[in-house]
Write a structure and sequence with these properties.
Aldehyde Dehydrogenase, Chain A, domain 2, alpha/beta, 482 residues, binds adenosine-5'-diphosphate, 7-stranded mixed sheet, Aldehyde Dehydrogenase, Chain A, domain 1, 15 helices, 2 domains
């Protein structure tokens, strides 16, 4: 299909869906994709009809029936080849990410490296797939435990990491021996399509990665009602996660869900303030605050509010908002056009309830870029404290006592991640025992590592990605005795 719009100046894009190892197109409606920076159209992908979606699922299943017989060793070689190819194509992939998602090119490059690392990591896991044999209680026989691939995995992914959110799921699924049908976010299909093309050119069997585009609820229904799909892995909002889990329950499809967070970042009076402000700003402003592990609530000890706000403001001052393709840019546009307006409303709501704007100012919601804002005098009951911000707005809350701050930090249905800054080993230990989160950063914020189990508790999700647990999500346990 030809791009119906005048060619943009970015990287070459693949206009279509990816089925059975090739780019395909279909007649009928299309989704237009926009550059989030200037909102110009960059291309279209098809809205696949039910027949084509079902066909993609069937072919993924056909691929699985063969691929499940392959050895972990051979899949490991393939995963490493794909990782190497991603690194070779870093320019093309990073430019595609920046074009459709908006993040600064340097962050897009880091995402490519991070994505390749998942393929390498799970290559290692594929090589180590092994069962167990235990003695039984008597002569009736031993207990054998095997780990087998679940089958076709449905991946539904978000736009904030258009490549990494696919690779960390797909690499785990492939390592286990599953085939994958992926529905990328409607905002960012082109990175997914490029990834599929690179993986296919590296030797991925046709059908092991289908990229299907189109109407999300309809595709979600088709995937979760298909008898051929045995696994769901979803990253996105808690509301959609709950909806998909309810649908998956109808067929007992195993879910892995990475949902929203409401990350507290606690700065005690004995913390290294400079480091806390530097790390806090990085964890707040990276990807313009559009990540589920972005800081949502800064809890600062009363005695240090002023210096922390000053240090955070200095960090915010250094940011260079702009086009992600500009090498100077460190804060790209908001990916979704309505986000600026949603954030302005949250800020206004807080201001009208007594908050103070200590840095920055509200800007025209029609603009794609939202410069950073720091709000103080925030209380636990304001909407801004309860909702996941997904934008470059810092909310500063004040605390006095240890018990108090942990109770307030835990007072959220979300439990994805928490950050703790203190020089007291006792407080670190105590906070890590008492904070309700799947991940806790102790004087550091870089927790998204391939080696580590990424995931949340409470309403932030079920299951883990990365680590060896990531592959287990795609394996059935079979116990044989005799
Ligand atoms: P966001 O609001 O940030 O886009 P969502 O949770 O709505 O977060 O979207 C995450 C992913 O879930 C995207 O790929 C989106 O298309 C998909 N999605 C949204 N609604 C549904 C649905 N009803 N069924 C299946 N997938 C959905």
């Amino acid at each position: 299909m030809k791009n119906i719009y005048s060619p943009h100046s970015g990287p070459p894009l693949l206009y279509g869906s990816w089925i059975e190892g090739s780019l395909i197109n279909s007649a009928g409606p299309k989704t237009t994709i926009y550059n989030p920076f200037d909102r110009t159209p960059i291309g279209q992908v098809p809205e696949l009809n039910d027949e084509l979606v079902n066909e993609a699922i069937s072919q993924a299943h056909l691929c699985f029936t063969e691929w499940k017989k392959s050895t972990g060793h051979s899949r490991a070689k393939l995963l490493r080849a794909i990782a190497a190819a991603l690194r070779l194509e870093e320019d093309l992939l990073a430019q595609t990410i920046t074009l459709e998602q908006g993040k600064p090119l340097i962050e897009a490059r880091a995402e490519v490296a991070y994505s390749a690392a998942y393929l390498d990591w799970f290559a290692g896991e594929a090589e180590r797939i092994r069962g167990e044999i235990l003695d039984g209680p008597d002569s009736t026989g031993s207990i054998q435990i095997r780990f087998e691939p679940v089958g076709v995995a449905a991946l539904i992914t978000p736009w904030n990491f258009p490549l990494a959110m696919i690779t960390r799921k797909a690499a785990a699924a492939w390592a286990a021996g599953c085939s994958v049908v992926c529905k990328p976010a409607p905002e960012t299909p082109f990175t997914a399509l490029r990834f599929a093309a690179i993986a296919t050119a590296s030797g991925l069997p046709a059908g092991a990665l289908q990229i299907i585009t189109g109407d999300a609820p309809r595709i979600g229904d088709l995937l979760l009602s298909s008898p051929l799909v045995r696994k769901l892995s979803f990253t996105g909002s808690t509301a959609i996660g709950k909806l998909l889990m309810a649908k998956a329950a109808q067929r007992m499809i195993r879910p892995t869900l990475e949902l929203g967070g409401n990350a507290p970042f606690i700065v005690w009076d004995d913390a290294d303030l400079e480091q806390a402000a530097r790390d806090g700003a990085a964890a707040k402003f990276r990807n313009s605050g559009q990540t589920c592990i972005s800081v949502n609530r800064f809890f600062v000890h009363r005695s240090f509010v002023e210096p922390v706000v000053k240090l955070l403001s200095e960090q915010a001052e250094k940011l260079r908002p702009g086009n992600g393709f500009d090498p100077e840019t460190t804060l790209g546009p908001l990916t979704q056009p309505n986000r600026h307006n949603i954030l302005n409303n949250l800020v206004n709501d807080a201001l009208s309830s007594g908050a103070t704007c200590s840095f920055g100012t509200l800007t025209d919601p029609a603009q794609s870029i939202m410069p950073p804002i720091i709000l103080t005098d925030i209380t636990d009951t304001m909407r801004i404290t309860k909702e996941e911000l997904f934008g470059p707005v810092c909310s500063i809350l004040v605390f006095d006592e240890d018990e108090e701050v942990i109770t307030r930090a835990n007072a959220s249905p979300a439990g994805l991640i928490a950050y703790v800054y203190t020089s007291s080993a006792k407080r670190l230990e105590w906070a890590s025992q008492n904070l309700e989160a799947g991940m806790i950063g102790l004087n550091q914020t870089r927790l998204s590592l391939v080696h580590a189990p990424f995931g949340g508790i409470k309403e932030s999700g079920i299951g883990r990605e990365g680590h060896s647990m990531g592959m287990r999500e795609y394996q059935n346990v079979k116990y044989c005795s005799g």
